[in-house]
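Input/output pair, single chain:
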Amino acid sequence: MQVSRLLTATLPLLTLLGSSVQAQPASGRITYEVIQKIDLSQMRMVINGQDVRPGSGDAPADMPDTRSFTQRLLFAGHFGKEERDRPEGMMRQFRREGPSGETPPDRPDGTGGPGSAGQRPNFKRPFEQQTYLDLAARKTIEVLEIKKDSATKIYQAEIPFKQATGWQEANKTKKIAGYTCRKATATRRNEPYTIWYTTDLPFTYSPIQELTPEKGVVLQIESDNESFKATKVEPQELAESSVRPPQAAQTVSADELNVMRRKVMADFRQQMMNRFQNR
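Output:
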C-alpha cells in the first residue's frame, strides 16, 4: 500500500519534470546575430581604376569600422551548413569626379551618395563558396565553385576542428534562446573570448570553429572584436542530403583551395580595373 501511494505521488512530479526538459530537435536551424570589427587590411577598393587600400591617402575617410549580419546553421542528422545574409568578397568601385571634389562613397545598397549620377555597382566575386560541417567527425568542409566561361568546377577541402587553447569552465549559467548555457573562457589568436554553450542539443558546434567545446553547441561568443549571439533555435524538417556537400566536388587540400581562391580573385580584380580604365 505504501509503495502504491509513493508511486501515485511520484508520477505527477515526473510528468512535471519531463515537461520542463527542452526537446532536442533532430533537424532545424540556429540563427545568430553577428557584430564584427572590420579588418581594413583585408578590404580592397577600386578608385579611378586603381587598386586602393583602406587607410591610405586615396581611400575614403568615412569607412565604417564595424559590420553586422545574420548567420544561420542548418542542421540535420550528422551534418550542417552555414549561411550568411551578407555578400562575401564584394569589390566596391568608387569614382572621383574632378579636382574640385569627390563624389561620396557608395551606400551599402550600391547607389551613390548625394549628387552622384546613377548607380555604382558592387561587383560580385567570381566564385561561390559554401561551408558545410560533418558534426559527427568534427570537421568543416569548405566548397568552392568556380565559374569560368561556360564551365563550372567544384572543389572541396576538409578542415578538422581546432582545439582552443586555455579552455576554462566557469561556474555560471544563463538562458539563451530558451536553452540553459554554461560559461567558459578560451583564447583564440591571442585574444580572450567568453563562450556560452548548451548540452541540450544532440550535436557539437560553434560559429567560430576554434572555439568548439568537447560537447555542446555554442549559442553566444564575445570578445573585444566580435560577438555571435543565437536569437532563435527552431526545429525544422530538413533532409540530411540538403546540408551535405555536393558529391561532385573534387577533394583538394585546404592550402590548394586557398591558392585557387586567391588566384581567381586577383584575376577578377585585374579584369575590373581594365574594364574601368577602358571606359
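Residues 27-277 form one domain. DSSP finds two helices and 16 strands in the chain.
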